[in-house]
Write a structure and sequence with these properties.
With 302 residues, the protein is an alpha/beta fold. It has 9 helices and 14 strands. Strands 4-3-5-14-6 form a 5-stranded mixed β-sheet, sandwiched between helices.
Length: 302
């Protein structure tokens, strides 16, 4: 393990090209970093770094060694993480994927609460509005807000339903009439949420009545916050989950369109690779996540 530490220190200096910056990143003092690298050079019988008063650079031997060490360290960390995830419920590293809007609005507080409860679990959180392949992306679980799952190659757990509504800025209806039914909606004013660039289809319900409306192609985006911002600016009508709309509805920046028609809910779901048995570390986060959302009265994340 001492050799492993010296390799990590050397790689940090090689990345930073600075002993002082490497020391800060590693939370060591600069003298310790210098001593560790010097011992590694002595052990290998090679000068790895050239030090001057102005800069640090790598020798050819140092560059070759760094190139060969990096994948070894990465593989070591991956294997160690896999073992910890498989055996320990409260220590290790967890790789999570989450939608961008939810990630920005909800995940910071959730992450902080989780870290306070489980300080030995490190989190790697990737945010994207693309429905990622949890196997190809090498993540331990993915948080999704979408329609009911259709992917049969993964396993999933429904946490709750997330209501959504069609909204627009009041200023929009200074230019176009306020719709009284879904039949009055002009596709040119409807902002489409789509990860593939195709237009969105909205299904409205009111009692036994159902109306299907196809949004226009004038604006299509894979990010709910972008569409919401455009709607707030008077750029059209968007259909989004309530956790994005909550503050704007409270302040009056946006109003519900067709409030007596139900646009339908999305599912908040956790997706996993096809584990034979849920790893303890993944189970720990799953239980915490579900309890946290329920405590928030998770239907709106308000």
């Amino acid at each position: 393990m001492d050799d492993l530490k010296s390799i990590r220190v050397f790689l940090e200096v090689a990345d930073q090209l600075s002993f002082s910056r490497a020391a800060q990143a590693l939370q060591l003092n600069a003298a310790s970093v210098t001593r560790i690298v010097s011992k590694l050079e002595a052990h290998l019988g090679q000068q790895l770094l050239v030090r001057t008063t102005r800069q640090v650079s790598m020798t050819s031997a140092g560059a070759q060694l760094a190139a060969r060490y990096r994948p070894v360290i990465a593989e070591f960390d991956r294997i160690t993480g896999d073992v910890l995830r498989a055996t320990k419920p409260d220590a290790g590293r967890l790789r999570i994927n989450a939608p961008l809007s939810m990630g920005v609005r909800v995940m910071p507080r959730l992450t902080q609460s989780f870290r306070l409860a489980y300080p030995l679990i490190d989190l790697e959180v990737h945010l994207t509005d693309t429905l990622v392949d949890v196997i190809a992306e090498d993540c331990d679980l993915s948080i999704r807000i979408s329609g009911p799952p259709k992917d049969k190659s993964t396993i999933w757990r429904k946490i709750c339903e997330v209501p959504r509504h069609a909204v627009a800025a009041p200023s929009l209806f200074e230019r176009v009439p306020m719709p009284r039914s879904p039949d009055d909606l002009d596709p040119a004013t409807l902002l489409s949420y789509s990860a593939t660039g195709t237009t969105e289809t909205w299904t409205f319900h009111k009692g036994a009545q159902q109306r299907i409306v196809r949004a226009g192609t004038s604006v299509v985006s894979n990010n709910g916050d972008f569409l919401y911002g455009l709607a707030r600016a008077g750029g059209g009508i968007c259909g989004l989950p309530d956790f994005i709309l909550h503050e704007g509805l409270k302040s009056g920046e946006v109003v519900k369109v067709l409030p007596d028609w139900d646009l339908g809910s999305l599912w908040l779901t956790l997706y996993y690779p096809p584990y034979e048995k849920l790893p303890p570390l993944v189970g720990t986060f799953t239980d915490f996540f579900e309890a946290y959302v329920k405590e928030l009265d998770g239907l709106t994340f308000a």
